[in-house]
Design a protein that fits this description.
With 803 residues, this protein is an alpha+beta fold. The protein is built from 25 helices and 22 strands.
Length: 803
C-alpha cells in the first residue's frame, strides 16, 4: 500500500541537508549483526512455540513416546536397539537403590532425543517441500500430477491443526536472484517509458555496472542471504521505513474502511465498545496461536512473522532513525476525544472487559465536560511532524510527562473518538465518501497518534475506520485483523434493539484515567509548527472513492482472466487516457512464501500492456485484435507476478545491492539512477482473506470496502482496489491537489470507462457499455457505479443504514 511512497523516497533517508549520510559500519559487521538478529528471533520464537505446544509434535507426543518405551521395557522389548542401556551406562552410578531411576531417566533421555530427531526430520522435509514453486507456473484451474503429489505430502507433514506460527521454522529463505537476470528484467521494464536515447544511456550504465561492480556486491549479498533469515527484510524496514525523516501521515500510513452501506449502530460509544472488544479477542487468539496460518490458494502457507507486532507496538522517533518498541502485553488502550487523552483499562480481575463495560467507559469519556489543557489538544500533531523534529521534542515531553507518554506509547492501540460523522450519505454519496477517506487518512492532523501500530477511529455516527502505520507490517496482515473485527463485532457480539452493546454495564468500574500533560513552554512553538505542517499536508491530499457495481469478479472469471491482471490493464488504459503517456507503475506483491518475506514490486507497465493500450486507442483496430493483445498483456503480467512472489523480482534485489554499495562506499551511477525513478502510478489490491466470516448472500452490504493510501509522487496517483463479493469493485484513488497534472475524480471516471471498454471485448460483457450509458443518461447524478437507491430486500442484523 503506502510502501510505494517510502520505497521511492528512501534515498532521502540516506541524505542530510543535501549531503549523503555515510554508512560507516563495515559491511561484514552489518551482515553479522543481521544474522545475529535473525537467530535471536528464531530462538525467541522457538521458546514461545515450546510454551504454546511444539509443532508438528506437542510435548504430549513426547510423553506418549516415553510411555511407549517404558511399556516396551516392561514387556522385555528393546525398541532402542541397546541405546537405552548405553545411555544408562553413561549416567552417574547413584547406588543400587537408584538403579530403577537410572533406567527411567535413560528411557526419558532416549525418548527426548528420538522426539527431537523426528521433529527436525519433519521440519527439514517440510522445508524441502515448501521450496517447490512449480505449482505457481501452472495455468489457473489446472494441477499437474507432481503438484498433486506435492500437495498431498505438504498436508501430511503439516499435521492436522497447524497453529499460526507452526510453519515458521519450515519456510525456505528468500532466494537471491542472478544479478544478470535482474538487470535484464529491469531494462525490459523501463524500455516502454524511455526514449531511445535515454534507454541507450541506461543500458550503457547497466553494462558498466555488470562489468565492474556487480560481482563484489553480489558476493556480499549472497553471504547475507546465508546468515540472515531474509536478505532483504531487515534493511527494507530500516532504510525504507525507520530511517525516513518524512511525516508518517499520508507518506507512511494507510487506512481501512468500515462497511460501505450500513452502520450496525449509530451509538459511538457502543460501536467503540464492540470494536475494541473484538480487537482484543483477536489479540487473545493471536497470543494463543489459535489463528490458522494463511494458505495461498488453500495450499501453500505464508510467513506469519508480521503478526507479532500488531498490538502493543509503537514507532518511537529518533534523530537519525526510528525504532519499533513492542511490549509483550498491554492491558489498556489510549483514547483521544476533544483534545483530551484518557487511559482505559481493558481487563478486570476476571479477564477481558465485556463490550457493555467498554461502552460504559467510552460513554463516560464522551460525557466528560472537562476542557483540554493548553496545547494538549494539538499535541498529537507532533506525531505527524518530520521525525527529526518529533524526536527532539519527545525528549522534553518524556521528561515532563513521562507517565502520560508511557500510557499512550504502551497502549495496546490508540482509539480516536471523532466528534464528526462520517461515511456515505444519501444526499451526496460521492462527496461524503471522499471526505470519509480523507478523514481516515489524515484526519485534522492532530487527532491521531500516528506512531502507534494502528489507530481505531470511531466517528460520532458510529462509523468505524482504521489508520495503520506501515513499518511493522503490510496491508494483508492488518486487513486480516480488520475482517475479523468487523465480522465479530457485528455478527457475533451484536447489538441490542436500541443500539447498545449486549450485556449490562458495571457501575463499580473506576472511571477512565485522564492523562495529565505537563508540557514545557519551549515545545509550544514546536506543536504549533507541527500542526501547521500537518494541516498543510492534509489539505493537499485529494481522495476519491467509488464503488463500481456494474460487474465484478464473477464476470472476469467467466472471461477466464486473472482478476488482478484485468484491473492492472484497465489502470494502464485509464492512466494513459488521463495523462496521455505511459509511466512506471508500482504494484505491490507479497513475498511471504519465504521466511520473513514482505513485498516485491510488479512493474505492470510492460511492452505488452502498452501495445494493448495503443490498440484500444486506435479506431482501426478491431475488438478481436485488441482482445488478442489484451491476453498477451495479461499473460506477461501473470508471469511478472509469479516471478515476484517466488523471489525472482527486480526491485528488492536492486535495493539490497544499493545498500551494500553504500556500506562499501562504492559509487554506482546505475543503482543511483534506478533508485531515483519516480512511480507516477502506485497500485495495490486489498485481498479479502476470510470470506467465510461474511454471508454475502444474506447480508450483501456487510463487507469491508477496503482502504487506500497516499500517492507515491507529487504528480502521481495512488490507487487501491478491492473486490466486494462477485459483482462490485471499490476503488480508492489519491493524488495531490497541488499538482496541475492529476485529478483523482478525473482518473476515477477514466477507470469506470476503461472497465466497461475492456469488458466489452468479451462476449460476456458486451451489453454492459450500452447499459451503463443508458443509466448515466437517466440519472446523471449517480456516476461511477453508485447505486441510485439502497439495495432492498437484503436481510440485515442491524437497525441502522446509511444509504
Amino acid at each position: 500500500m503506502a510502501e510505494a511512497h517510502q520505497a521511492v523516497n528512501f534515498l532521502s533517508s540516506l541524505s542530510s541537508d543535501g549531503a549523503e549520510v555515510e554508512l560507516s559500519s563495515p559491511v561484514l559487521q552489518e551482515i553479522y549483526l543481521s544474522g545475529l538478529r535473525s537467530w535471536k528471533r528464531h530462538l525467541w520464537r522457538f521458546w514461545n512455540d515450546f510454551l504454546a505446544g511444539m509443532f508438528p509434535a506437542s510435548p504430549l507426543s513426547w510423553l506418549f513416546l516415553f510411555s511407549a518405551i517404558q511399556l516396551a521395557c516392561f514387556l522385555q522389548l528393546d525398541p532402542s536397539l541397546g541405546l537405552v542401556e548405553k545411555i544408562k551406562e553413561l549416567l552417574p552410578d547413584w547406588g543400587g537403590q537408584h538403579h530403577r531411576l537410572r533406567g527411567v531417566l535413560a528411557a526419558a533421555l532416549f525418548a527426548l532425543c528420538l522426539w527431537g530427531a523426528l521433529i527436525f526430520t519433519l521440519h527439514v522435509a517440510l522445508r524441502l517441500l515448501l521450496s517447490y514453486h512449480g505449482w505457481l507456473l501452472e495455468p489457473h484451474g489446472t494441477m499437474s500430477s507432481p503438484t498433486k503429489t506435492w500437495l498431498a505430502l505438504v498436508r501430511i507433514f503439516s499435521g492436522r491443526r497447524p497453529m499460526l506460527f507452526s510453519f515458521q521454522r519450515s519456510l525456505p529463505r528468500q532466494p537471491l536472484p542472478s544479478i544478470q537476470d535482474t538487470v535484464r528484467k529491469y531494462l525490459e521494464s523501463v524500455r516502454p517509458v524511455l526514449s531511445d536515447e535515454d534507454f541507450r544511456g541506461t543500458a550503457a550504465l547497466a553494462l558498466q555496472f555488470l562489468k565492474v561492480q556487480a560481482s563484489p556486491l553480489q558476493r556480499y549479498l549472497r553471504l547475507k542471504s546465508w546468515c540472515a533469515a531474509n536478505y532483504v527484510t531487515d534493511w527494507w524496514e530500516e532504510f525504507v521505513y525507520l530511517r525516513s525523516r518524512n511525516s508518517l501521515m499520508v507518506n507512511s500510513n494507510y487506512y481501512m474502511m468500515d462497511f460501505l452501506y450500513v452502520t450496525p449502530t449509530p451509538l459511538q460509544a457502543a460501536r467503540a465498545g464492540n470494536a475494541v472488544h473484538a480487537l482484543l479477542l483477536f489479540r487473545q487468539r493471536l497470543n494463543h496461536q489459535e489463528i490458522p496460518p494463511t494458505l495461498l490458494m488453500g495450499m501453500r502457507p505464508l510467513c506469519s512473522a508480521q503478526y507479532e507486532k500488531i498490538f502493543n507496538t509503537t514507532r518511537v522517533p529518533g534523530v537519525e532513525k526510528d525504532y519499533l518498541r513492542h511490549l509483550q502485553d498491554s492491558r489498556h488502550v489510549a483514547v483521544f476525544h476533544q483534545g483530551r487523552f484518557f487511559r482505559v483499562a481493558t481487563h478486570a480481575l476476571n479477564g477481558l472487559l465485556s463490550p457493555r463495560s467498554l461502552e460504559q467507559q467510552f460513554q463516560r469519556i464522551l460525557d466528560d465536560p472537562s476542557p483540554a489543557c493548553p496545547h494538549e489538544e494539538h499535541l498529537a500533531a507532533l506525531t505527524a511532524a518530520p521525525r527529526g523534529l518529533w524526536a527532539q521534542v519527545r525528549e522534553s515531553v518524556k521528561t515532563q510527562a513521562a507517565d502520560a507518554l508511557e500510557a499512550v506509547e504502551g497502549a495496546a492501540f490508540f482509539v480516536s473518538l471523532d466528534p464528526e460523522p462520517a461515511g456515505m450519505t444519501r444526499e451526496d454519496p460521492a462527496t461524503s465518501l471522499d471526505a470519509y477517506a480523507h478523514a481516515l487518512l489524515a484526519g485534522r492532523g492532530h487527532d491521531r497518534w500516528f506512531d502507534k501500530s494502528f489507530t481505531l477511529i470511531v466517528f460520532s455516527n458510529g462509523k468505524l475506520g482504521l489508520s495503520v502505520e506501515h513499518s511493522w507490517a503490510d496491508c494483508p496482515v492488518s486487513g486480516h485483523m480488520w475482517e475479523f473485527t468487523l465480522a465479530t463485532e457485528c455478527f457475533q457480539l451484536g447489538y441490542t434493539v436500541d443500539g447498545h452493546c449486549k450485556g449490562h454495564p458495571d457501575p463499580s468500574l473506576p472511571h477512565p484515567q485522564r492523562l495529565q500533560w505537563d508540557l514545557p513552554e519551549k515545545i509550544h512553538s514546536s506543536i504549533s509548527l507541527a500542526l501547521r505542517g500537518a494541516k498543510t499536508l492534509a489539505g493537499t491530499i485529494d481522495c476519491h472513492v467509488f464503488p463500481f457495481s456494474h460487474f465484478g469478479k464473477s464476470l472476469i472469471k467467466r472471461c477466464h482472466v486473472s482478476s488482478d491482471s484485468f484491473i492492472q490493464m484497465v489502470l494502464q488504459l485509464a492512466h494513459f487516457r488521463d495523462r496521455g503517456k505511459f509511466c512506471l507503475t508500482y504494484e505491490s506483491s507479497m513475498t511471504r512464501l519465504f521466511l520473513e518475506g514482505r513485498t516485491e514490486t510488479v512493474r505492470s507497465c510492460t511492452r505488452e500492456a502498452c501495445n494493448f493500450v495503443k490498440a484500444m486507442e486506435d479506431k482501426e483496430k478491431t475488438d478481436l485484435q485488441c482482445l488478442a493483445l489484451f491476453r498477451e498483456a495479461v499473460d506477461k503480467h501473470q508471469g511478472l507476478l509469479k516471478a515476484a512472489m517466488s523471489g525472482q523480482g527486480v526491485d528488492r534485489h536492486l535495493f539490497a545491492l544499493y545498500i551494500v554499495s553504500r556500506f562499501l562506499h562504492m559509487q554506482s551511477p546505475f543503482l543511483t539512477q534506478v533508485h531515483s525513478e519516480r512511480w507516477q502510478l502506485s497500485t495495490s489490491q486489498i485481498p479479502v482473506q476470510q470470506m467465510h466470516l461474511f454471508d454475502v448472500h444474506n447480508y450483501p452490504d456487510y463487507v469491508s470496502s477496503g482502504g487506500g493510501f497516499g500517492p507515491a509522487d507529487d504528480h502521481g496517483y495512488g490507487v487501491s482496489y478491492i473486490f466486494l463479493g462477485d459483482d462490485m469493485i471499490t476503488f480508492h484513488i489519491s493524488s495531490k491537489k497541488s499538482s496541475t497534472k492529476t485529478d483523482s475524480h478525473r482518473l476515477g471516471q477514466h477507470i469506470a470507462d476503461a472497465l466497461l471498454d475492456v469488458a466489452s471485448l468479451f462476449q460476456a460483457g458486451q451489453h454492459l457499455k450500452r447499459q451503463f450509458r443508458a443509466v448515466a443518461e437517466e440519472d446523471s447524478g449517480h456516476r461511477h457505479g453508485f447505486p441510485s437507491s439502497k439495495i432492498v430486500g437484503s436481510k440485515a442484523p442491524t437497525t441502522s443504514t446509511d444509504f
